[in-house]
Amino acid sequence: MSEIIATTKNKKYKYIKSLIQKKIRDREGVFTVEGKKSVDDAVASAYVVRLVAMSESFAQNAQYNAETVIVRDDLFDGLCDTKTPQGIMAVIEKKDTDFISDTEKLYVYCDNVSDPGNLGTIIRTADAAGMGGVLLSPGCADAYSPKTVRSSMGSFFNIDIVTGFEYNSLFELKGKGFQLVCGALCEDSTDYTQTDFTNPTIIIVGNEANGVSDDILKASEHIIIPIYGKAESLNVGVAASVLMYEAQRQRRGVAG
Predict the structure, then answer these.
(1) How far apart are the C-alpha atoms of 254 and 154, rounded to whole Å?
(2) Could you give phi then psi for residue 108, rounded to 5 degrees?
(3) Listing from the earlier edge strand, what are the strands of the sheet with 30-34?
(4) Which domains are seen in the chain, by residue range?
């Protein structure tokens, strides 16, 4: 029988609520997801679901093969990061992903992407585009923040995400035959459609305000996505999407 939580002083209630803080998530080695689809995706994935929490109303028609607690309806929202909770959330163990490069696959590298919403969008698109994985520099937004996971719309559980991927490791991949391709406005930048993405490739996107770091710029091929209207630039998530799909278009031999 599931434990019923009827007070905010409950030990498990306080524990779940504390996971809103990154430092607590890091210390405990866990993260949270909210909403039925995200919880279902997590349960069906290779991640370990440590705990499922449901509101009394939601629990009437739901059952999960994991430790479950039921939280009084008027207390459940206090556990959540979203403005309109669906009545279910889960605590999940972080999973270390060992990166093993494959020259047959495409990868996207996020260089200090700071907004978790943008990061989640990139993860979602990388999954949709069939990328081999998402590599995150140490300065990226927290991959395990509720907003990142939520913005990925379940794709977080479908694709390899490697955190803390140092520049040196990126440059080692270049030495193993990968071309590094980054979106950057430089004198030698070429139209992104002119790049041969059928080669082993890592697509690099940079920080929203400052772009790609100088060290990576020096080691990479520079490409641009033309802007035909009056906008100054594209959102990093949109730019990453354009590049990933162009790469897959070329690899699949689809006419432009």
Answers:
(1) 27
(2) -120, 135
(3) 3-5, 68-71, 49-55, 88-93, 30-34
(4) 3-93 (3.30.1330.30), 106-251 (3.40.1280.10)
Residues in the chain: 256
Who contacts 254 (Cβ-Cβ below 8 Å, separation ≥6)?
none
pTM: 0.92
In angstroms, rounded to a whole number, what is the distance separating the alpha carbons of residues 151 and 99?
A: 23
Which distant-in-sequence residues (6+ apart) come within 8 Å of 239 by Cβ?
183, 205, 225
Spacing of C-alpha 218 from chain mean position: 26
* Distance of alpha carbon 207 from alpha carbon 216, whole angstroms: 12
Contact 32, 88 (CB under 8 A): no
pLDDT at 256 over 70: no
pLDDT at 118: 97
* Helix, strand, or coil (residue 103): coil
Beta-carbon contacts of 16 under 8 Å, excluding residues fewer than 6 positions away, are 32, 51, 53, 79, 89, 91
Non-local (6+) Cβ contacts of 88 within 8 A are 34, 35, 36, 39, 52, 53, 54, 55, 58, 62
Residue 176: HSE in the Cβ half-sphere, 13 Å Cα cutoff: 14
Q: Give the DSSP letter string of 2-70.
A: PEEE-STT-HHHHHHHHTTSHHHHHHHTEEEEESHHHHHHHHTSSS-EEEEEEEHHHHTT---SS-EEE
| 195: Cα within 13 Å, side-chain hemisphere | 30
Phi and psi torsions of 136, nearest 5°: -115, 130
Give the contacts of 187 (CB within 8 A, at least 6 positions apart): none
pLDDT, one tens digit per residue, over 140-175 is 999 999 999 999 998 999 999 999 999 999 999 999
